[in-house]
Design a protein that fits this description.
The complex is a heterodimer of chains A (113) and B (120). Chain A is 0% helix and 50% strand. Chain A is mostly beta strands. Classes of the chains: A mainly beta (113), B mainly beta (120). The interface between A and B is medium-sized, with 29 and 28 residues.
Chain lengths: 113, 120
């Protein structure tokens, strides 16, 4: 089954404790992206990757890192989480073409205390 | 300025009413795509429709219909005879090529969403 898998589904952590949210897709998609969703703000792009070893900042990259060492995986890293990073995070992938729909993961609800 | 504006933050209707969700977008590209996604209370994002900028034909899928008007930069979504299961947050989104040094970003920009509540 074609899917984007994010883990964990829920995460509670404390300020400053490094964490990684994993994302994996099985569709051989070149394009992957991370979004965060906050009430009243919709979904905002954090980082995206056009292909292996090619990543770039989205609209709200501060406080996040990503890596794309393999085509299928695109982890989101919070080196020193802060409470303002409490949010619902979505990973997404698509064929590398404008206009192709994004396939989304189920989301990760992160709370930073 | 917002690229995708969903002016209605929340809408509440009674079951069987028709409801229209508004979406206004902004782009300089001649080639772009518009999407609607649904986010039910369970939280996942469900793709509803994609429209390219060259196809202004309205589309109907069951109780759902979409009205794309380039002249007003709008892509509105109507649910006919709404049902409780239609209760969700609905996002309109714009996909366009964003040129950056070293290549292009195929970017999907979302509106802030409209929370639709359908009451029995």
């Amino acid at each position: 089954e074609a899917q984007v898998t994010q883990n964990p589904r829920y995460l509670i952590t404390v300020t400053g404790k490094k964490l990684t949210v994993t994302c994996s897709q099985n569709m051989n998609h070149e394009y992957m992206s991370w979004y965060r969703q906050d009430p009243g703000l919709g979904l905002r792009q954090i980082y995206y990757s056009m292909n292996v070893e090619v990543t770039d900042k989205g609209d709200v990259p501060e406080g996040y890192k990503v890596s794309r060492k393999e085509k299928r995986n695109f982890p989101l890293i919070l080196e020193s989480p802060s409470p303002n990073q409490t949010s619902l995070y979505f990973c997404a992938s698509s064929i590398r073409r404008v206009g192709e729909k994004l396939f989304f993961g189920s989301g990760t609800q992160l709370s930073v205390l | 300025a917002q690229k995708v504006t969903q002016a209605q933050t929340e809408i509440s209707v009674v079951e069987k009413e028709d409801v229209t969700l508004d979406c206004v977008y902004e782009t300089r590209d001649t080639t772009y795509y518009l999407f609607w996604y649904k986010q039910p209370p369970s939280g996942e994002l469900v793709f509803l429709i994609r429209r390219n900028s060259f196809d202004e034909q309205n589309e109907i899928s069951g109780r759902y219909s979409w009205n794309f008007q380039k002249s007003t930069s709008s892509f509105n979504f109507t649910i006919t005879a709404s049902q409780v299961v239609d209760s969700a947050v609905y996002f309109c989104a714009l996909s366009e090529r964003v040129r950056r040094s070293g290549g292009s970003n195929y970017k999907l920009t979302f509106g802030k969403g409209t929370l639709l509540t359908v009451n029995p």
